[in-house]
Write a structure and sequence with these properties.
Elements (H helix, E strand, L loop, with lengths): L1 H32 L4 H15 L2 H14 L4 H14 L2 H10 L4 H18 L5 H30 L13 H14 L2 H14 L4 H14 L1 H8 L4 H23 L1 H9 L8 H20 L3 H11 L19 H26 L13 H6 L5 H22 L6 H36 L3 H26 L4 H31 L5 H14 L10
GO molecular function, one term: sodium:phosphate symporter activity
GO biological process, one term: sodium-dependent phosphate transport
Membrane topology: Multi-pass membrane protein
Length: 530
């Protein structure tokens, strides 16, 4: 049973991943472009989930789009409601093909075709992903066959109907727990369909378990929203509310819904098909019930999870632009704050302990916490830079002297240079990781030298700011720093040429080292000094 489930889950993973790689961009564009309006968003969610065969994947995509502000809250709710309908397609695949064909006549030929594709084509081609899709289908049905065989053996010794005296809620709870643990409603539905096909459970038990599986699938989206922005929490909560209330409605109306299914399919003779229809039916009912209340739910969640805009500025927030002198001073200090945060970002990117440069925590560290990543610091720096530019634009409306205007231009120029340097360092991150983990000892050495040079450079720059007011001392520090950088640069180029001549590094490594030196030699150079 466990082996069959593992093979089934791996088959589902190959299916989802191959489809995502072959046309992931198209699906993301479709979600973004064809979700304008409630009906269109529901339809798009159903269609894309039917193709991707993963409501969780679509739901997590919606979390990302809503979080990025490219999809409205109402349309996000609509897509997730449609995803619930689309995911029922798995039930129909299993019901129609899973138990009505011989496994060797369907799964094995698919896996054989995939094997030939893997041998013939390269892993970077689209055809290779087609092979992964085919073998994914093969594993899916192979796993299903293993589960069916094992459940048939259990069915001879286990009678789950004895739990019926405790009520259908026991089976409902079992479906919730099973799906929450497996993180896949499709896998849970396959297990339930296998159970009903083998006679381990009857139709009434299976319907309660399917409702539970529908509720349990919300765990994946809730986990994806943990620690996220309010927009992500709203979408995940809407998914929970929709699935929970839909499940409650379906559970209360279990008798009428089962009777309605019985009008079209004889559940005693074909319980598997009946369960697939039941799964689709109650999700449709949920969409119909919730459709008029999407707007109300959206407004409720907006109030329940309000936006809390983080205050990233230290000096600009309480400084009025109507007082140019105070505003100019605050803008200068805020630009220096951005400069420090840039240093911190670079230290984190190079894996250097910030205590080697700073003897105190910077504002971003206090705001983001210990678990923050370099990406978090980069995004905050972009927002801070935006606030600096916005403040500068307001300040231009004030009556400024010519010298004041020039001073402001220099600050904004410095601010732009700081952000450009951060972007350059961001691009270096992958190369630095390769230098550190390389088997080439020369690359390891250069990585350590880059880190050492960076620490020395930041100490020199910070000593420059510590001598504010003493222009002669600042000039001396700046001159020493520039001369030292030029000497280190010349030494580095000489070393690289020697290593290249001795064939100790290849062409790609030479290029990577030169690019890294270009940016790390002056990650925030004198041109950026405000």
């Amino acid at each position: 049973m466990a082996a069959g489930l593992a093979i089934f889950l791996y088959g589902m993973f190959l299916l989802e991943d191959s489809v995502r790689i072959m046309s992931g961009k198209a699906f993301r564009q479709m979600i973004r472009l064809y979700t304008d309006g409630r009906l269109r968003s529901i339809g798009s969610g159903a269609l894309i989930t039917t193709i991707l065969q993963s409501s969780s994947a679509v739901s997590l995509m919606v979390l990302a789009f809503v979080g990025a502000g490219v999809m409205t809250m109402e349309n996000g709710i609509g897509v997730m409601m449609g995803a619930n309908i689309g995911t029922t397609f798995t039930s129909w695949i299993v019901a129609v093909f899973g138990f009505k064909i011989k496994i060797e006549s369907f799964a094995f030929p698919l896996m054989a075709c995939a094997g030939f594709i893997f041998i013939i084509v390269s892993s970077s081609s689209k055809l290779f992903q087609l092979g992964r899709l085919l073998i994914g289908f093969g594993f899916l049905f192979l796993g299903l066959d293993f589960m069916k065989t094992s459940v048939e053996a259990y069915a001879q010794h286990i009678d789950l109907t004895v739990l019926a005296e405790y009520g259908a809620w026991v089976y409902l709870l079992f479906g919730i727990i099973m799906t929450a643990l497996m993180q896949s409603s499709s896998a849970s539905i396959a297990v339930i369909l296998t159970g009903i096909s083998s006679g381990l459970i009857n139709f009434e038990i299976a319907t309660a378990m399917v409702i539970g599986a529908n509720i349990g699938t919300t765990v994946t989206v809730l986990l994806g929203a943990i620690g996220g922005i309010p927009a992500k929490k709203r979408v995940s909560t809407s998914h929970l509310i929709f699935n929970l209330i839909t499940g409650i409605i379906a559970f209360i109306a279990l008798g009428p819904l089962s009777h309605f299914v019985g009008l079209f399919i004889d559940t005693s003779a074909n319980a598997v098909m009946g369960l697939a229809l039941f799964h689709t039916l109650f999700n449709f009912v949920g969409v119909i019930v919730f459709f008029p209340f999407i707007g109300y739910m959206s407004r409720f969640l907006l109030r329940f999870f309000p936006e809390h805009k983080a205050i990233l500025t230290v000096y600009l927030n309480n400084t009025p632009t109507e007082v140019p002198d105070a505003a100019t001073s605050s803008l200068r200090k805020e630009t220096l704050h951005l400069f420090e945060e840039c240093q911190l970002y670079t230290l984190k990117t190079f894996g250097i302990d910030d205590k080697l440069v700073f003897d105190h925590n910077l504002p971003f560290q206090n705001n983001l916490g210990r678990r923050s990543t370099p990406t978090d610091f980069y995004e905050n720096a972009k927002l801070l830079h935006g606030e600096i530019i916005e403040f500068y634009a307001k300040l231009l409306n004030a009556q400024l002297e010519k010298e004041e205007a020039k001073a402001l231009e220099r600050m904004i120029y410095a601010s732009r240079n700081i952000m450009n340097s951060m972007k350059n360092i961001k691009g270096l991150r992958h190369d630095m990781e390769e230098f550190d983990s390389s088997d080439n000892k020369h690359l390891n050495l250069q990585y350590r030298l880059f880190r050492r040079r960076l620490i020395g450079l930041y100490h020199s720059i910070n000593s420059f700011f510590d001598t504010m007011g003493d222009h002669q001392e600042q000039y001396r520090i700046l001159l020493r720093t520039v001369i030292h950088i030029e000497q280190q640069d010349a030494q580095f180029l000489s070393t690289v040429m020697e290593l290249a001549a001795a064939k100790d590094i290849d062409e790609r490594e030479i290029s990577s080292l030169l690019m890294a030196n270009r940016y790390s030699a002056s990650p925030v150079g004198s041109r950026s000094l405000p």
